[in-house]
Fold this protein.
Amino acid sequence: MRARIGIIGGTGVYDPQMFELKETVRPHTPYGAASDEILLGELKGVPVAFLPRHGRGHVLPPHMINYRANIYALRQLGVERVISPCAVGSLQEEYRPGEIVLVDQFIDLTKGRRYTFFDGPRTVHIGAADPFCPELNGLFAEEAGKAGIPVHEEGTYVCIEGPRFSTRAESHMYRAFADVIGMTLAPECALAREMEMCYTSLAMITDYDVWAERPVDTSTILRTMSENMDRIRMLISNTLPRIPAERKRCDCSKVLEEAGA
C-alpha cells in the first residue's frame, strides 16, 4: 500500500477508532532503521502512513531519532505531505498551554544530528526562507477556526538538542527571537524539504518552559498533552479529506529544481 500523506507523531495521536489499519511495514533505508514500523491505512477514506517519531513506548530521545531514515522511509511509500504533531513549550505569554501553533519559521540550535541527504559528492543548497507548506498551514488554520480550536497561525520554533530542558538563562535568551521551543522539528522539516515533501507542524503548547515562575517538568507536559490530544486528533481528522491530491498551491514539489539540483 502507498500513501501520499504521512503523520509523524506520538502514540497519543494514533487512534485505532479513527484509523483503519491495512498493513504494517518496516522499509529498509540507506540510512538505517526508522523509529518504528510504519502503519499504513485509511483515515476517513484517505490513505495515510503513520510513524511514531520516538518509537512505540517512547524509547528514542530526541537526539537519538534517525530523522533521515524516517523521512526517507515515508518518501519511499509515496508520501508527499507530512503532518507533524509535536509538544512545545511557550516562550511568550500570549502563547498559552493548550493552544496549537502552526509553525511558520524555525531556528535550529541542535548540535549533533545528521542534517542533510546530500553529504557528497553531490552538494545541494536548498532554499529554506519559508520552510513550511503554506497550503497545509492554511487548511489546518481554517479547520481549527471552524472547530473553535485556539490556534496561532504563525510562530517561530527554536529547536534545541535536548534531552535536557533549558536553563533559565537560555530560556530568557530564546524569548528574544522565538515563540515556542522544542526538540524534534530540526532536522526533520529540512529533510522533508530536501525530499520535496510538504511539511506542517501542529505544535501543541504544554507549558511555559522555565522563564516563567514554575519550571517545566515532564509530568506537566504529559498531563497537558493528554488533556488536549483530542483537539489534535479532531483537527487532523477534519483536515485530511480537504487536502488535494495535486500540489498546485505551493512550491514544495520544486525545491530541488529551484536549487539547481
Notes: The CA atoms of residues 81 and 162 lie 27 Å apart. The chain has a mean pLDDT of 94.
